[in-house]
């Protein structure tokens, strides 16, 4: 197996695409020279972009990513064990805590336990970083600590290829819709939260209307997701005309559906995404890395008003949005609300696919907005400025 970029190596520890950590040598060593990004899900796109943006930072600084609902202290201790050291030793270096959702800081109790309070008062604690403004507001108003807002970025793209793809919308080629799950989406919740059932019905509706589209879809466990109540369109609407109703239906629409079930390295993934025209993510909440990556290719998003999505999706500008059910709703409410989303979104998506001139302009708007707000150059400048400011405030 070829291990991706050096973001998967920290000191003498190596992370595989499956997320497993192992020492390259018998004595793993954590080198704390320059900026280091450590997290339980260290290969996530958010952390990869942070490492790239902070590559030339001269300060010795840690950014500790919080990924689970167990809270900050558990994340620090887990990362310390990974490198066969202690939390006290790890935190001898000035550190930020990086999070998307407030709950990953304080845990499921939604209060501040004593052990986390002591972490926030640590003399080397520099503050919280988040790419979600609502999270920054929550951290500051609830805890009174510094929280730096840092917009995310994606990898650099080939602008010529993107421009040529947008220009080719004037031809009669199929419009490529993209619905992409994590390469580790081995749980039904991930497909459900990313709106797989909704996507199933939307694409089915387009195919039934003979709209000239094709679907590029990533799902590691499609067959299992189809059979789970609440996760595939059949469970939400047994009468739905949908390409994923069952294996026979999937085979029937094989010419219009390209299904990817395996992990793809960066270059292979980019090749597929260069063909995408519209990104489908009617999710329960924001998936920042997925959105910024889609926007970096100039793909408008079929999105939602779920938590955090308004940070990225502006209705009728770079996206079409609507209300979806929250994940904790009872099944009958999910069925009702998601059904209304499909009913309202299908005509809008049909119209967008039918007006290729409008789709081309929307794609250009999306790409320009990304380059102005989320480019790698901006991300790097913002992160460097943020670290310089925090370190100037730091009193040893």
Fold and architecture overview:
With 396 residues, the chain is an alpha/beta fold. The protein has two domains: 6-153 and 376-393, no CATH class; 159-373, Glycogen Phosphorylase B (Rossmann fold). It has 17 helices and 14 strands. The protein has helices at 45-53, 72-82, 87-90, 103-106, 114-120, 133-143, 159-167, 188-193, 196-208, 222-227, 233-236, 247-252, 266-273, 288-296, 331-354, 356-373, 376-393, and strands spanning 9-10, 13-15, 21-23, 35-39, 61-65, 95-98, 125-130, 147-149, 175-180, 213-218, 257-260, 278-280, 301-302, 319-320. The strands form three sheets. A six-stranded parallel sheet has the order 11-10-9-12-13-14, with helices on both faces. Helix 1 crosses helix 17. The protein is globular.
Biggest beta sheet attributes = 6 strands, parallel
CATH class value of the largest domain: Alpha Beta
Strand order of the largest sheet: 11-10-9-12-13-14
Gyration radius, rounded: 22 Å
What's the tally of helices? 17
DSSP strand content: 5-15%
Mean pLDDT: 82
Q: What name does the CATH topology of the largest domain carry?
A: Rossmann fold
- Terminal Cα separation, in Å? 44 Å
């Amino acid at each position: 197996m070829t291990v991706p970029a050096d973001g998967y190596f920290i000191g003498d520890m190596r992370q595989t695409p499956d997320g497993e950590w192992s020492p390259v040598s018998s004595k793993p060593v954590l080198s704390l020279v320059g900026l280091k990004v450590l997290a339980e899900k260290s290969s996530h796109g958010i952390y990869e972009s942070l490492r790239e943006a902070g590559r030339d930072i001269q300060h010795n600084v840690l950014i500790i990513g919080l990924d689970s609902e167990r809270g900050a202290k558990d994340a620090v201790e887990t990362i310390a064990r990974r490198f066969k050291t202690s939390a006290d030793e790890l935190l001898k270096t000035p550190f930020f805590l990086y999070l998307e959702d407030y709950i990953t800081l304080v845990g499921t109790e939604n209060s501040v336990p004593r052990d986390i309070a002591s972490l926030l008062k640590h003399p080397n604690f520099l503050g919280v970083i988040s790419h979600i403004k609502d999270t920054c507001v929550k951290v500051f108003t609830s805890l009174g600590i510094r929280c730096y807002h840092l917009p995310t970025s994606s990898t650099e793209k080939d602008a010529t290829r993107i421009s040529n793809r947008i220009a080719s919308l004037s031809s009669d080629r199929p419009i490529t819709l993209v619905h992409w799950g994590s390469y580790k989406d081995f749980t039904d919740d991930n497909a459900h939260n990313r709106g797989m059932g909704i996507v199933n019905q939307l694409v089915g509706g387009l195919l039934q209307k003979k709209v000239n589209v094709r679907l590029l879809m990533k799902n590691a466990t499609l067959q299992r997701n189809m059979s789970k109540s609440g996760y595939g369109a059949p469970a939400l609407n047994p009468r739905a005309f949908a390409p994923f109703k069952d294996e026979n239906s999937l085979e029937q629409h094989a010419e219009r559906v390209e299904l990817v079930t395996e992990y793809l390295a960066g270059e292979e993934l980019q090749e597929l995404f260069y063909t995408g025209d519209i990104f489908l993510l009617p999710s329960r909440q924001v998936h920042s890395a997925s959105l910024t990556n889609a926007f970096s290719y100039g793909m408008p998003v079929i999105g939602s008003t779920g938590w955090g999505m308004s940070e990225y999706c502006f209705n009728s500008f770079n996206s079409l949005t609507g209300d979806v059910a929250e994940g904790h709703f009872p099944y009958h409410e999910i069925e009702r609300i998601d059904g209304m989303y499909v009913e309202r979104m299908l005509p809008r998506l049909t119209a967008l696919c039918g007006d290729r001139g409008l789709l081309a302009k929307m794609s250009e708007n999306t790409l320009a907005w990304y380059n102005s707000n989320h480019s790698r150059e901006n991300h790097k400048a913002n992160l460097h400025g943020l670290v310089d400011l925090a370190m100037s405030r730091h009193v040893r």
